[in-house]
Amino acid sequence: MASTDAYLDSLPYFDDDLQKFPYLRQKVDQELARELKKMNQGELHPKVPPPVELFTDHPLLKAELERARTNEPLPALDTHRYQLPAPTSKPGSDEEWQAALGNARAQLQHQKLRQSNLALLQTYGPNAHRINNYLLEETTKQVEKASEDLKQLTVEVNRERKNDQERLGKQLTSLETRWTELISSILQIEMANTALDVEIDRLNKREAELAEQLS
């Protein structure tokens, strides 16, 4: 079980060793308990690939994923850049008023861009969403069909596997019965040979005794 190249196969539709030999069932239960213990401790099977690390090339997305994983709240929205603060000093220097004016122009341009984006979204957004939904529905249908095809293929493979094992199981049972019969016949022949050897020895001794009496 520890080898990563191990390939295990069985005949579950024919083999009944677990029913014939209870100690095998005990070993199987012990092995299952050991594997479950490893899974509970976070150990995976050697053939299970390592977990995929997402967004390795996007630090911001990676940080956001980590924040969502740890259930940390979203940072508060920074509203400072949307404000139009006036110069704090009275009456205010030219530099302060120039900075406030530049900020107001930037805010105005930002609002213009938002209006343009909203107008584009109202014009093209519905159709774009419909097309995206259509593509998602088609992808979902393809995935569901592939899943059903795979399930059907799995059922057919298991059905064929069961039929093959039952057919071959009958042959194995017949061969095992024939093997048992042949072994029994061989044992009977050996016992008969042993009895004949004993009888031959007795007759040889009897022959020797008769020959000695006649002489």
TrEMBL record:
Q: Where in the cell is it found?
A: Nucleus
Which stretches are annotated as coiled coil?
Answer: 136-163
- Asked if the keyword Metal-binding belongs to this entry, the reply reads no
Q: Name one GO biological process term.
A: RNA splicing
Say yes or no: keyword Electron transport present.
Answer: no
Signal peptide stretch: none
Q: What is its main location?
A: nucleus
Q: Which GO terms describe its cellular component?
A: catalytic step 2 spliceosome; precatalytic spliceosome; Prp19 complex
Keywords (A to Z) from UniProt:
Coiled coil, mRNA processing, mRNA splicing, Nucleus, Spliceosome
Q: Which InterPro entries match?
A: SPF27
What family classification does the UniProt entry report for this protein? Belongs to the SPF27 family.
What is the official name of this protein in its record? Breast carcinoma amplified sequence 2
Q: Which organism is it from?
A: Coprinellus micaceus (Glistening ink-cap mushroom)
